[in-house]
Amino acid sequence: MTPDRVLNSVEGVCRDATTSDELLSGIADTIHRAIPHDGAVWFGVDPLTLLGTAPSRVERLDPGLCDTFWHLEFHEQDVCLFADLAHGEGAGAMRHSLDNRMGRSPRYRDFLQPQGYQDELRGVFRSGESTWGMVGLYRESAHQPFSAEDVSILKSVSRPIGAALCTYVRQSAPWLTQPSAPGLLIVNPAGHIIASNNEAMNWLRELWPCVEDSKAELDPNDLFSLRNEKLQVPTALYALISRSRAFASGRESAPARLRLRDARDRWLVLHASTLAKSEADAADDVAIVIEAAKSAEIAPIIIEAYSLTRRERDVVAAIAQGGSTTEIAAKLFLSPHTVRDHIKTVFEKVGVSSRGELVAKLFGEHYADPLHASMVHVD
What we know:
Blueprint: H1 3-16, H2 20-34, E1 39-45, E2 52-59, H3 66-75, H4 82-86, E3 91-93, H5 94-97, H6 106-112, E4 117-127, E5 130-140, H7 148-156, H8 158-170, E6 183-187, E7 193-196, H9 198-207, H10 238-248, E8 256-261, E9 267-275, E10 285-292, H11 295-304, H12 310-320, H13 325-332, H14 336-350, H15 355-364
Antiparallel strand pairs: 1-2, 1-5, 3-4, 4-5, 6-7, 6-10, 8-9, 9-10
Helix pairs in contact: 1-2, 1-8, 3-6, 3-10, 12-14, 13-14
């Protein structure tokens, strides 16, 4: 397929897909025809943390290496890390980046080679200034390495795919009821849940309906009521767990925190931190707290979904706090005329005609606890 045909096909899939799974399936089929490969991983990301979220799609990769995949992403220096691609070239091939010296890559030694893959092509999907998804494509040794043309094709489809994933986030509907109390899980280094309260299991069922603990013996008088070495951590949590260990070791500056939606499109927040038995022991076990997302947690990701500029986001935040045009101008060191221009542009992007509509659409339609109407002041 020519680059133009690939782009047209991808744009058609993005336009016609009705669900996120249908979107990724159609994109994956199109990219496979344009860039033949033997394995792949696709996932949406939180644009502020670049942690993987739904939707996701994995093709011909060993599920037992999921933990390894995320560990290498946060703990090892390597070429074509997703964070580097998101702030740089947008796509890159491992073998080309290493000038064929594959032994220099921890990801090649510990993830590709054990599965029989000899090259990897990675790309990120952007909308505006934000990254909304990522992909890794893999080829076995029987095939040629990825070419510069393959990299170019993946770069060319970044924007339409990023915009489609952005729309998927914007169209979420998390106003349905949720479990009220936070959940707490303890995960050991082997990836097993070794302790949990009942709320945590309820949250996991909301996130991943396939989670089943019916064989576990629950003690309602015990905070950590689940002890079941056979219950594996859902795959999507491995990135969060790996990030928490990287933070504990000083390799990451920000704590492990992830915002994602459950099976019914409601926003949740997950926090993870390592636990040490004593000051002298290594922090191996990880505690994960799961709770309903509050407005302040989701505001940035929803605002970014409308491709607002940094200054437009500042104006929206000031409007949500009830600022008048004059007050916003003074706070942001702008003229009132410039503030009015920003507000007009924001209205056009979001599709509203008043400040009340703006706050209702950005906050009320996407959060379980919409901002109170008294916070809005209309000139």
